[in-house]
């Protein structure tokens, strides 16, 4: 019944901007997380077009700003003592942009650009998507503490991808990117000629392992 009661606020679709009127302050903070992820994506695209390193640094910074908004939306919801089903969905969608799509495009921008690299990065995004969907569907089944918070994460939470963004930032500072010294550890050719569709950067394997850890059922990390 509580779920049906929560849905009633979205039944009224009359009038202009009826959906926007249902937004809470915490929802707007969550949307800012998505804004940061979107700006990161566009900054990466501008770097690829112009090769201006300032755009790459901007793209690397925005996911961190997104994390700040991701942290504060919960604080605001508790402060205002208001949460909504819409806010829960917004949170996952914004996380996918800022911590799934944006880091994958950053990896492409710095040099993971072979055909197999893009396959791995696509898998990374899809694993993040699957992890968020599973969290939304099963969060009620995870044991809670006295405050009502889940005791552990099943699989790596998607904001953990900021660790990868930090590594990419270090590589950028060292010049270990395409167009400068190149990606560390080089490539391996799985089939065909070097430079062809069968070429893969060794670093992509790390992204693939990270993606697998996000959807792991057995990996359980205690929540801080």
From TrEMBL:
The chain crosses the membrane at residues 28-49, 55-72, 93-112, 118-140. GO terms for molecular function: CDP-diacylglycerol-serine O-phosphatidyltransferase activity. Pfam families: CDP-OH_P_transf. The keyword Lipid biosynthesis applies. Its main location: endoplasmic reticulum. InterPro entries: CDP-alcohol_PTase-I, CDP-diaglyc--ser_O-PTrfase, CDP-OH_P_trans, CDP-OH_PTrfase_TM_dom, CDP_ALCOHOL_P_TRANSF_CS. Keywords: Endoplasmic reticulum, Lipid biosynthesis, Lipid metabolism, Membrane, Phospholipid biosynthesis, Phospholipid metabolism, Transferase, Transmembrane, Transmembrane helix. It is an enzyme of class 2 (transferase). Pathway: Phospholipid metabolism; phosphatidylethanolamine biosynthesis; phosphatidylethanolamine from CDP-diacylglycerol: step 1/2; Lipid metabolism. This is CDP-diacylglycerol--serine O-phosphatidyltransferase. It comes from Leucocoprinus leucothites.
């Amino acid at each position: 019944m509580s779920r049906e009661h929560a849905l009633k606020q979205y039944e009224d679709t009359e009038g202009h901007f009826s959906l926007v009127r249902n937004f809470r302050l915490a929802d707007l903070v969550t949307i800012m997380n998505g804004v940061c992820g979107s700006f990161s994506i566009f900054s990466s695209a501008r770097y690829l077009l112009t090769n201006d390193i300032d755009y790459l640094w901007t793209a690397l910074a925005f996911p961190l700003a997104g994390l700040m908004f991701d942290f504060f939306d919960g604080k605001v919801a508790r402060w205002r003592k208001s949460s909504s089903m819409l806010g829960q969905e917004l949170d996952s969608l914004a996380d996918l942009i800022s911590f799934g799509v944006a880091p994958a495009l950053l990896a492409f921008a710095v040099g993971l650009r072979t055909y197999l690299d893009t396959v791995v990065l696509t898998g990374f995004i899809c694993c993040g998507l699957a992890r968020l969907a599973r969290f939304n569907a099963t969060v009620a089944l995870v044991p809670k503490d006295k405050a009502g918070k889940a005791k552990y994460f099943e699989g790596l939470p998607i904001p953990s991808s900021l660790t990868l963004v930090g590594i990419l930032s270090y590589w950028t500072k060292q010049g270990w990117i395409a167009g400068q010294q190149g990606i560390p550890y080089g490539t391996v050719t799985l089939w065909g000629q070097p430079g062809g569709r069968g070429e893969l950067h060794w670093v992509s394997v790390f992204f693939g392992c990270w993606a697998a850890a996000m959807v792991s059922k057995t990996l359980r990390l205690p929540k801080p």
